[in-house]
């Protein structure tokens, strides 16, 4: 899932000259440590450099930008956590699109499937999403993808594990967790796969295996964000190959953002063709309908 550019932030906390300068210096240091970590001679020192950075600078919330004191374990302050993460939205069990609120009475599981998935059932058996892809939460995904804010990936993985613990789609748990693969050139340019950075803490929290090379991207497709829905499905129709046995397994697929679902659905199709029994998708953010 790619987004060509970072939108203007919708939400900013109170700003002061001290806080602004502090934020700029913090961002410069984080970028520097991220670059050092990618250079072979400095890799062994990267953990020490990151620890020193955390000591030297106050920890700042990645949503409001304030040096909140004290900041809880994680990259988001308590105020932003309460304001933006705790949204009680009913979602389609297949694709995680938000659904209209129910008007009383108990609903059967079929009621929790959107009209689109009822009309054309996807290859995905279920999708779990933390929240909608919208400001200011979109800044987290963009910061992870384009600014190497790996703490965001750990936060996403931790929260997805919490969601999975109480979700019927994860009973029983997946047998293996795998990230959506990046094209080789994009992986080299970025230096990491954001989906794998989310998948690792998710799998660890759920106590299941994680396999970074379960899927291989065999076609370097055009960016999905530039295409309409039909073109997106054609663009990724033959983009993936399954590299390890999955027959009879429940596979958990992980990505940072789900837009149309075409990419994940294409990957699920390949997994099902290889014999996977079930495919559950875990995404941090879900793009709502226009």
Description:
Mean pLDDT is 80; it is low at 1-23. Strand 6, helix 10 (262-273) and strand 7 form a beta-alpha-beta unit. This protein is of the alpha/beta class and 290 residues long. The chain has helices at 17-38, 46-56, 78-85, 115-119, 138-147, 150-165, 184-190, 194-206, 229-235, 262-273; strands at residues 126-132, 176-179, 209-210, 215-217, 240-242, 250-258, 278-286. Helix 1 runs antiparallel to helix 2 (46-56), helix 5 packs across helix 6 (150-165) and helix 6 packs parallel to helix 8. A 5-stranded parallel sheet has the order 1-7-6-2-3. The longest helix is centred in the N-terminal third of the chain and has 22 residues, at 17-38.
Short descriptors:
two-stranded antiparallel ribbon, 7 strands, disordered N terminus
Walk me through the topology.
Blueprint: H1 17-38, H2 46-56, H3 78-85, H4 115-119, E1 126-132, H5 138-147, H6 150-165, E2 176-179, H7 184-190, H8 194-206, E3 209-210, E4 215-217, H9 229-235, E5 240-242, E6 250-258, H10 262-273, E7 278-286
Helix pairs in contact: 1-2, 5-6, 6-8
